[in-house]
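Consider the following input, taken from an annotated entry for 4-alpha-glucanotransferase (Burkholderia cepacia).
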Amino acid sequence: MNAARDALVQLARQAGLAIDWQDAAGNARRVDPDTVRAILSAFGLPCMTARQCGESAARLREAERVVDAPPLLIARCGEPTPLPWLGGRGRMRYRLHWEDGGTHDGHVAARAGGDAPRLPPLARPGYHGLEIGGSRLTVAVAPPRCHELPDRARGWGLAVQLYSLRRELDGGLGDFSALAELARAAAPLGAQALAVSPVHAMFAARPAHYSPYSPSNRRWYNVAHVDPAACCGAHAVREAVASLALSAGFARRESQPLVAWAPAVRARLRVLRFLFARRDRWLSRAQRESLDAFRDAGGASLEHHARFEMLHARLRREHGDDWRNWPADVRAPESPEVERRAREHRDEVAFHVFLQWLARDGLATAQHAARDAGMTIGLLADLAVGVDPAGSERWCHAGDMLNGVALGAPPDLFNPLGQSWGLSTFAPWALRQHGYRAFIELLRAAFAHAGGIRIDHVLGFARMWIVPDGMPAASGAYLRYPLEDMLALVALESWRHRAIVLGEDLGTVPPDLRAHLSAAGLLGLDVLWFARNGDGFASPARWRADAVATTSTHDLPTVAGWWRGRDIAWRKRVGHGGSGGSGEFARDAWRERRASRIALWHALRDEGLAPGAPVTPPHEPPNEPPLAEIAAFVGRTPAPLALLPLEDAIGQREPVNLPGVVTGHPNWRRRLPAAAPRLLADARVAARLRAFAQARDEAAR
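Applying the prediction step yields:
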């Protein structure tokens, strides 16, 4: 029995699983053997007996043998780089082909004891070609750090949910033109950045699936946010809306406080299809050339996504939304049957390429609008941690992604049962095997039309909590990822795009991870609700200088909602309280919230931001949330960038999203009450933004 157990543990560690780990409370934990077996089986590693474990371990050792040159060698500027596949070889010449032209010749020397030779330090970041020992490969030379904001920068920006924005003739759903309007309205007030919810491709044929953090494909764009008028003018859109008898529905949805995703997306796509069918009437020569160039540059990745969208629309009624349940001959993007169907329905494939082109142009226009209006950063794009396994990214890269497990998070104080997000992502061994090609493509797509990116759950660069299909979220384990390689590639792409990087580092943080992120120039994220000092709130001066500061996030209550306990009321209403949503839970939670409100009021007073005498029980802070004062409190931190969610700027009480809640709360649906220029001109909103901006100026002195 002990031999079998030891063999299982050894195999698990060899496969990258952390058998022993520490929870959020600091307690030592060990993964249950049944969980280990379920995960290893999902990895294709038989492990029910000691013999099977030994055979699987031998397979892993053979796969890990370094015999040939890797497709991508990752190096750091100024540091020698080992060449392990050349171990035991003597002196050799090499030639480097710089990516911007020219070559460099040199040699590597044999090392004592047969150790692998090392490539001398290189000083030029980029992707360079290397010829050595009969091998040709690419060397990714990363700078020491990501692109960074200037020293003493104390800028500020807004965070916005793209779908929530309003403008005339939007049909009830925010779009890229509304984002550009917001940028032009915010920049004159001093905003340097707009952090935007993810714009990854969703499912055109499945509009009721709309969480931006559960996308179909992170390489491409969410076509639901296309403004049809941006390509052919408002007159053509009004004509299309009238011809399709959509006017009444457009007007009704535009007046509603919540996004009606399914009808709004369907109507917008009907308009776009109408315009696509008549493209010869309005598509200029320059636009046609731009579309053709976009399709050429998109290559196989774009074609495959467009094919998926075509197939999904045609197969979902009979075979469902999950491509894994489709006929076997259409489960791969380049199968003969998929090729045949793509030829047969070439116009439908072209339509989805057209939609991606419009989305790309809309996003690029918004970034140009932000920079032209004076923002130094502009858009902060959001890179989701994973994808819906039924989507096109998994279909395109089925053999490279985790199978039989879902991404999630272990139990913590806020989620005592843990979280299983139902998402998939690339397997760590597949990333290395294919030279990180897909990961680099994701980074480039995120950076392409932004002044920075936010990496969701950057903790996953070091380890990812994975949960076997069908098991509870707490029955998971951590899987190691190649942290240093991924950080090097992020730094390189950040340097190439001259864009900053924010890593969302909330949750159960591995030891020393924040130090690694900071050393690579990634900014962390400090949130007011977690910036505590015992029972109180940490003063602004004690916040991190290498992190972005913010009042809240999309998964946490707004400031006004927190102050009034709206999140507690919602948890009670949907039954997600510690006692099944009982009154006892609400009473306990509200008792803690009252104490926290008093603590925050004390912190504001200590900063000279809250007038009046100290508040001590049973005296209460004001009923109305001190929004401007709280914004100024966060603004005074030493963070190089501070973000104020638009919901906090306008004083919205209701949350954007309640994690773990599927029904009972309108996640990802709340719209802003007016168009951005009108909102920002409101006297109360303007006062809050002035307080925020003035606090940033004070922090810079």
